[in-house]
Design goal:
This protein is 74% helix and 3% strand.
């Protein structure tokens, strides 16, 4: 048994449970202690993730490491099976980093019911980390579902004016998707007699007929696509992001969306290879429709947060296109795009929240432009995040999208190359439209003379904001200039995933 994965789950869970105990009665003392407490617990969890990363054997990244496999429910042969490989490691580190940065951000903001918010975010972290650690199908499903309730409360309690309707829409979509996902997982169990994800991936579909694999892949794919989100199952996302508080939007975009795409890499493609080959063209078609739809929807938005939310539909379309190619290049692109999107869109939502806090609105025409003149540091950071998101070479957003298009140029065996060349061309148009909507947004918000109606003096970037945002800027630059740092981790795991010798 490895202690690090257990500790990664235990520390935030214990931290959340301790918050249920009575605390200081003075509001000022209580708020100060809660800020330090949340920062400390999330900081310890992040340090554990760094220890995991530092002790990981990168020479054998395709093998499950730090495994724990204990009987969980013996009567059903369910096991508490955890492990880490080159696919899950980057996402675990990303999850703990973004959670820590959210608590850093909260140190400088005032929130109602801070104790409840800290407890909710720590429970959310348990579910997110557990999803990336789980190696048992039903354990994966349990952690996959754990995140729904805390995120519902984050939106419904600390969100904007339309928070209740957005939270209900979020929970309805995701629960219905999870029902279909569970049916697909149970079908695999019924056909193979095991829930062990490692054994199932090694079997590579043996023991399941092609028709069964197709049905299971469609069921699991629909459940994962809701969380991703894939067009046309995305409609819960803009409302959830628009109404969620800043930290909720950061974790929703930075981590929760990745849980859906992670499921394709961990379960759907390796366990159901024949189903994947049959459904991949449809997955690619929905992906490229989402790319174009997301870009056009962004061009029509007035609200800054809503525009960033729709941009996620397009960016996750590139991730799904990478998976749909069923090639090492395409799947590496998807995994790289997952991490890049988490960093960049997390930064964008941090900035959008700061803009809304200063101006009192996220409506772009009302903001009035001129941010580079009024708030030069914030305007510069917003410009940086936008050009990273539109895929400027040298920044992390470029590699995921470029490699996804390259993977479509040479799709996997048995897939129609003319069809995938069409997908590549449509995806290329999407990159142009992505540049268009970000440049239009920047022209409205950061450039031009400051509007006379945009308020009085406002503080530029504050210290706690800088502490929360600089690590994201540094990692966007690191992976943009040195993509090999991430690709060296994922490539061996991708080869194992595809059944390469």
């Amino acid at each position: 048994m490895s202690w690090i994965p257990i500790a990664l789950l235990t520390v935030p869970l214990a931290g959340a449970l301790l918050l249920l105990a009575p605390g200081p009665t003075r509001p000022e003392t209580r708020a100060r202690l809660l800020r330090a407490y949340g920062l400390g617990v999330s900081g310890i969890t992040f340090v554990l993730a760094l220890v995991l990363a530092l002790t990981f054997d990168y020479g054998d990244a395709g093998r499950m490491q730090f495994t724990t496999d204990q009987s969980w429910i013996p009567g059903l042969d369910l096991r508490f099976h955890l492990g880490v490989d080159g696919i899950s490691l980057p996402l675990i580190v990303l999850t703990t980093l973004l959670t820590l940065l959210c608590f850093v951000y909260l140190t400088g903001t005032r929130n109602e019911r801070p104790r409840a918010l800290s407890c909710t975010l720590l429970v959310l972290e348990v579910g997110m980390i557990g999803t990336f650690l789980a190696l048992d199908l039903l354990l994966f499903f349990v952690f996959f579902e754990v995140v729904l309730i805390p995120m519902y409360f984050v939106i419904a309690i600390w969100g904007g004016q339309g928070r209740r309707a957005a939270a209900i829409k979020f929970i309805l979509y995701t629960v219905l998707g999870s029902v279909v996902l569970l049916l697909g997982l149970l079908l695999i169990w019924a056909q193979t007699g095991t829930l062990d994800m490692v054994a199932l991936a090694q079997a590579h579909g043996s023991g399941m007929a092609r028709s069964v694999q197709i049905v299971a892949f469609v069921a699991i794919g629909i459940g994962l696509a809701v969380k991703t989100p894939m067009w046309p199952l995305h409609t819960w996302l803009p409302d959830a992001h628009t109404e969620a508080p800043t930290v909720g939007s950061v974790l929703l975009a930075g981590v929760l969306l990745k849980m859906g795409t992670y499921g394709f890499a961990r379960i759907a493609i390796p366990v159901l290879p024949e189903g994947a080959a049959a459904v991949a063209p449809w997955l690619g078609a929905f992906a490229v429709v989402g790319i174009i739809y997301g870009a056009l929807a962004c061009l029509a938005q007035r609200d800054l947060k809503r525009m960033i939310a729709y941009s996620s539909v397009g960016h996750m379309g590139f991730v799904l296109l990478g998976f749909a190619t069923l090639t090492p290049v395409g799947i590496n692109a998807a995994l790289f795009g997952n991490v890049a999107h988490g960093l960049i869109t997390g930064l964008l939502f941090f900035l959008a929240g700061a803009v809304k806090e200063r101006y009192g609105t996220a409506d772009m025409p009302t903001l009035g432009g001129g941010m580079l003149g009024r708030l030069p540091r914030m305007g510069s950071l917003l410009t940086f995040a936008c050009v990273a998101s539109l895929g400027l070479p040298g920044l992390a957003g470029f590699w995921g999208e470029m490699l996804a298009l390259l993977g479509a140029y040479e799709p996997g065996a048995g897939l129609s190359r003319p069809l995938y060349l069409t997908f590549m061309a449509i995806g290329g148009i999407g990159t142009v439209l992505t540049a268009a909507y970000f440049l239009v947004m920047l022209s409205k918000v950061t450039h031009g003379p400051p509007a006379k109606t945009s308020g009085g003096l406002m503080a530029d970037v504050r210290g706690y904001e800088l502490a929360a945002w600089v690590p994201l800027v540094a990692l966007i630059l690191l992976f943009g200039l040195w993509p090999k740092a991430l690709l060296l981790i994922t490539t061996p795991a991708v080869q194992t995933l595809l059944g390469a010798p």
